[in-house]
Amino acid sequence: MNTTLRDSQNRSKELSSRLAQLETTNHALQTRVNELENLLETERGNQLTELQRLREEISRLQKEMALQLQEYQDLMDIKIALDMEIAAYRRMLESEEERLNITPGRTTAAVQERISVRGGTPLRGVKRKRTMFSDEETTKAELKSTATATGSVHIVEEDPDGKYIKLHNKGDKEYSLSGHQLIRTTENEEINPVVYKFHRSYKLAPDATATVWSSDAGETHDPPTTLVMKNLKWPTDDSITTRLINNEGETVAERESKKVMVSYSTSLERPEAPWRARSVAVSCNEPAAGHTQLLDLQSSVIYTMSNG
C-alpha cells in the first residue's frame, strides 16, 4: 500500500514537472508568434510605403514625358517651318543665278546669303509661330468579346442589338448539329434565356457559316445558311453569354460579350497665325574682264498660310 502511494506521488511529481515544461515551451512559442506578427505588420507597412513612393515616381515620370513630348512637338513645328523657308530661299537664289547666268563653275567667290526681316531686324530674333493642336475626345460603347470552342464549330459573331448570331465550321468535315441548342443568357435575372434548338437533320458543311436571326430582324428563313427563329429574338444587355450545347448537355462553343465605354482622342492641326513677310538680300561676286562686278539684289517674299 505504501509502495503504491509512493509511486503515485512520484508519478504526480513527474507529470507536474512535464506540465511546467510544456507551459514554458508554449509561452515561448506564443512570444515568438507575437514577434513574427509584429514583424509581418511592420514589413507590410514598409511595403505599402514603398508602393506609394513608386506610384508617385511613376506619376512624376509621366508628367515629365508629357512635357518633353510637347517640347519635341514644338521643335518639330519650328523645324518644319525652317525647312520650308530654306527651300523657298534656295529656289529664289537658283532663279536669280539662272537669270544672271551665274554658274558654280564661273563663280570664284562664295555666295553670301543674308536673310532679314523687312525693316532690318535679323531673322534669328524672330519668334516662330507655333502650330496649334486641338484635341477632340469622343466616347462610345463597344462590344468586347471572348470566344472558346472545343470542336470545329465556333460562335464567330453576334450582333450587339440582338439581331443575329453566326456559327462557323472551321473543320474540313461536315458537322451535325442534331439535338444541339444555341442558348443566350444575360446577367440581368429579369431577362429570360432564349434557346434555339436545331433540327435533327441539320448539318453544317465544312468552312460554312450559318446565321441564326431573331424573328423581328426582317430576314427570310433559308436553310442551311439563314435560320430565322419563330416568335423569339435574342436578348441584349451590357453582358451576354452565348453557348452552343450538344445533345449530351456539353458546351462545345461559348462566346462572352460585354459592353465597355471606349474613349477616342483626335488631334487636329492648324496654324496659329499666317507667316510674316521676309526679305532676302543676296550678294554675288563675279569676276569680269579683270575687275569685280558687285550685284546687289533685293527681293522679298511673303508667305501666307490659311486654315483652308
From TrEMBL:
GO terms for molecular function: structural constituent of cytoskeleton. One of its GO terms (cellular component) is nuclear lamina. It comes from the Eukaryota. Residues 141-266 form the LTD domain. InterPro entries: IF_conserved, IF_rod_dom, Lamin_tail_dom, Lamin_tail_dom_sf. One of its GO terms (biological process) is nuclear migration. SUPFAM superfamilies: Intermediate filament protein, coiled coil region, Lamin A/C globular tail domain. This is LTD domain-containing protein. It comes from Hyalella azteca.
